[in-house]
Amino acid sequence: MMQVNGVNCFVSATGKGEPLVLLHGFTGSSVNWEGVTAVLAPHFRVITLDLLGHGRTDSPSDPARYRMERAAADLIALLDTLGVEKSALLGYSMGGRLALYTAVHHPRRISRLILESAAPGLANKTERSERRRRDNTLANRIEQEGIPAFVDFWENLGLWQSQKQLSAEMRLALRRQRLQNNPVGLANSLRGMGTGVQPSLWPRLGELKMPILLLTGALDEKFVNINRQMAAQIPTAHLEIVANAGHTIHLERPSTFQNLVLSFLA
To answer: What is the pLDDT of residues 54-95, one digit of tens each?
Structure first.
């Protein structure tokens, strides 16, 4: 556990070499990266953490504490505490949005960027407003009905249809991890760091200069389209569309995911 800007943050580091930070998605935790970490640790100093409101990290009551700029400041403060001047950064989904935001606003601290099933936010103000409304409704539901009812709802979203190809054991482990989250943390993560709240990064994609790998699953059509648009706007980006995978490539096609990441970082 590490103190970062006044909150207790669960952090783990393993391996030696170039630092590589892994950022999980909404409802996730650092536990989700265990399989990936085992493969990467022989080559890199792999740093994983539970993002604010998730896993073993604190869940503050103020939604403003979760805002994207503060999450990025926490990440930079964490690197400072660990003595890391520059790091490669890999983010999945919500963690990918944070990774992209950090790379845009703190480019000198990020050597290379890998974004799995990530997006730069919503460019349209009306879409952002509608997404904020939906996320606030869901946040209220989490607090009123509790984590088990929310996880039942969450696991049946169409976004996770492709996770049905995972073994029963893996799906059960994923469910157990989700159930360990704090309702205040998840609710405030939606209110403070949701897609509708974060500033759109679309106008700033062309500023990025570091090498960037975009990963998306072929079955995740919405994010395939988003990432094709991103690849067209980022001069240093390379897009890989992984066959027979949905939103969670690192779980659904772990070998392919690991090989792509290692090849990019080599």
So the answer is: 999 999 999 999 999 999 999 999 999 999 999 999 999 999
37: Cβ contacts below 8 Å, ≥ 6 apart: 14, 22, 46, 48
Tracing tokens 């209110």 back to the chain, one arrives at 191
Q: Among candidates 49, 71, 69, which has minimal Cα distance to 60?
A: 71
Strand stretches in the chain, DSSP E: 2-4, 7-9, 11-14, 18-23, 44-49, 87-92, 110-116, 212-217, 237-242
Q: How many domains does the chain have?
A: 1
Residues composing the chain: 266
Domain CATH for 119: 3.40.50.1820
Give the residue numbers spanning the domain of 68.
2-265
Collect all residues with Cβ–Cβ distance below 8 Å to 183 and sequence separation of at least 6.
142, 143, 146, 147, 150
Distance separating alpha carbons of residues 55 and 59, to the nearest angstrom:
9
51: left (phi over 0), alpha (psi -120 to 50) or beta: beta
